[in-house]
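Researcher: Re-running this chain for the archive, since the previous output was lost when a drive failed. Same request as before.
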Amino acid sequence: MSGLLFLLSPATSFAQQTFLGQWYQVGPDWRFPEQPVNTINAPSLTGGRFVFQSELEVTDADEIIVIDFKNASTLGRLHHTLTDTAGNIVAEAQGGIQSESRNTFFLRHGREFRLPPGRYELTTELSSPYFIAEPQPYWDSLANYREAIQWGNVITLVSLGILISLGVYYLILALVRRRTTESMYTFFIWMNVLYNGTALLVTPNLFNIHWFYFVGGPILLSNFAYILFARHLLQIRAETHPWLNRLAKLFMLLLGVLLLVALFNTNLIIESARYGVGLMMFYGLIAAIVRAYEGYKIAYYYLVAIAAFFIIGSIAISSRDLDGVFTIYVEHIGLLAVTVEVLLLGLVLGYQFAEVYREKEHNLALVRHSLKIAHHDALTSLPNRYAWDLAMETISDSGMITLLDMDNLKLYNDTYGHHKGDEMLQMFSGTLSSELGETGILYRMGGDEFAIVCARHSDAETINQAIADTIHYMRNNGFEKADVSYGSANAKESASLESLRILADKRMYLHKSRHSNPQSV
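Model: Regenerated structure tokens:
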């Protein structure tokens, strides 16, 4: 990781230079130019008020230099004072997250100074409730500084853009699906947006929000949300995974202790958050390994995400000095860790959505199959009596029904077997359906009974011809004794559906009697 960060620092003819000087810890009453006396090696990560003194030599005429801090951007207030050899103040600049002063450079604490050649003494006062990493002052030329900060700013803006976009997406999912998984992960993302946005100076620069405890506080809360998210994502329950469930409760208890410590001692907020992130990542990694070993497919994808998060995040919470790297901060590494995890977790959700889609398609196929079984005859694939009843409820006043009864089906069943009778039914249904086309729909009512529903009674002749052509075809293709009796009735002829059916049924039996006794016609 340090090698990658070094590559992100552009190579130029001018190298950034760390000040060689002395740190002091001072009390709230210290004022410049009083000489501090309590020397220390570096500021404590638990915060306080500190002074750094060093010398600076400018050799080029009217050279513009920039003074900034390496390792971290989480700084409460800073105040640079430059004096000449006579002790006269020649330049001052202040800033920090808690300061109302506008930053000279976007998302940076860098302050520029135009100084004539000479030797100067730098006194930097730095106060902060806490630090993420050890702040180290350094200086750079203006041109080189502008180039060097670009990669860090790109990481900040792109990563926060990704988190905000996915945060909105997961928020919508959480509102729609109302599940703990999406709700907790949405909370985790937005707490990280708030934390990183403040630590990397987005909220102070763009929204003039200078509440320092947005750095650290949201992370303390997001750690709880992430453990709950991981437990629900991996379906860890007391009944199925008792020890993983107990481990989650233990880690939640430890996070609660860290939260109480931070509430009673605000200087320990970032340290509590640091240990909390470690607990959160450790639980996610253990749970993913166990569930993946058990063969839970979602755990495979989640394991990739949490492993990347664990590796990069461990660097972020353990780094105090990024040796040789000046414009990439520990906060950038932490932001990258979260962004990579969120992007990779898209694999998990993508798999989940694919599973949901496949399950939905499978269920729809079952429903369609059930509907087909409920609405269609298995032998002929025609709509059945139930489908006919539904069609009758929507028949228009201009509609017409025709009831049909195949003749001689019993003859073929008794003479050649039921397979021949089935063949006869299939030929009749297939041929007549084809002959009808869009004129009407053929239904099998059961046994040798069929029905036709037609939208227009004016198509009666077309239906009669279709029936005649069907019988003619069957007699020429193995069923010489095939015949059918039928009767039609117009919707306007009857006041109710039942009387309409009875009327068509009477006409069908009248037609059948004429077949049986042609001399009576």
